[in-house]
Hints:
Layout: H1 9-35, H2 41-54, H3 59-72, H4 82-101, H5 111-123, H6 125-130, H7 139-151, H8 160-178, H9 185-195, H10 205-220, H11 224-240, H12 247-252, H13 260-280, H14 285-304, H15 310-322, H16 326-336, H17 344-359, H18 372-388, H19 392-398, H20 404-425, H21 427-440, H22 442-452
Helix pairs in contact: 2-11, 3-20, 5-20, 5-22, 8-9, 10-11, 10-13, 11-13, 13-14, 13-18, 14-15, 15-16, 15-18, 16-17, 21-22
Amino acid sequence: MNYYFNFTLYNSNLIYLSMKKILLLLIVILFNSCFGGEKTDEELLAIDKEILAESMESDKVLSYKFAKIIIRASVAEDSISPEFTEFKSDLTKIFNTISEHNVEGSEGLSVLDYISIYRDYNKMKDFIKEADEDDFPTLLEVFIAADATSSGHKINVPKGIAKDYLQNIEHSVLSAIVVLSRDIGKDVSLYECFKTKPELLPDSEIKTLLQYFRGFVFFEKKLHYLSEDEISRNIDWLNANEGIDLPLTRLMFQWGNLSNEETYTGLHSLNYLFRGCNRLMMERDIDEERALEDFEVFLEDSKKIGLDNEVIWSVESYLYLKKEKNDKAIAALKKLKTSDLLSSDEKERIDESIEYVKNRESGKVLNGFYDKYFLGKITTKYMLSLLAEIDWQKIMEEQNVPYTKEMFATVDNFKSFIENYNKYTSSENLEKAGDELMKQGEGLWDKTKGLLD
């Protein structure tokens, strides 16, 4: 490539032509930005989809995907792909290493084991990046295979459409279970949402709850057009199915005291709330207009079922401030200040907001603190507090979901494995581990050197 740097006349011309193309490209970009008009909903949604796909290659996500493929590949046939055939023995070795140390988790693995797994991972990293875990058997199939081995009976496993349905449910359940986890958390929840394909599920209460949850995860990750798309489809379905029975919704949100009609209204209101919050975070004027319309529906629904909480006070504050109804805005802000969801700093700033509203001149802009980001923050805290109360294992067991205990044991194993794997295989800790192993004996150190090559 050295000829690019030889200052011959020929190469100077090449550089000149390249710079000319770059200049023309910049002019086109500038022209489009100035005169091309606003992007459409479809274009903005496509940008969010690209951002989501690019975020799926973080180290945390790849570690989690690696752990899942280890498990799902344990009962897979060689014929999935030539790449899988190449690495199948390595994956089987890792699966056996983890399984034989501790049936309840991977705490029994040594530092040397983790370094060995790390070496194997580096060897197959490109394969893990490119592989689709859904090409492998589902987690249920792994549990069924273990059952068949212990019982001696062959059990039929789902195929085709049944497999698509099952692994979509698995992805969505895992995204819900891990979203509040300190160990693997929101990046992994986003990955599971990315892998869920609601369009393959029949229209039902389960599907609408899955889409609502996906919408919430996308909202948290500031993928507002993706979130709006999920929630809008939910709203369309709910509007077309008014009065539908929603037993899982009552169970999940602990709305046992609500009638079915009230449960429908509650779920309807939450969808309008989150769509409004998404639209408020967008840049176009039309989005804010749509957001205010959504908030009006949310408040109307909430009043029907007698809800009175921090989210309602937040939305009321925002709407009253926009409409310059200062007295009502102050009353709502004072209620909001009593919320346990707010920190002491946030409460102090609400006091500042109240003083601002008292002295605000007509037509002045909203105060800097009580803005759309604060409203989004309150809504997120409220939703997370609801999710924290959900006992997913109990709900699944009450719904007679097979292998629920095994699913939750697998999640615990994921957490333990990934936490230790990331701890022992960071560049800093690899060096420390090498020093520690060298102190323990030359034999261990020699093994480690070979693994780190």
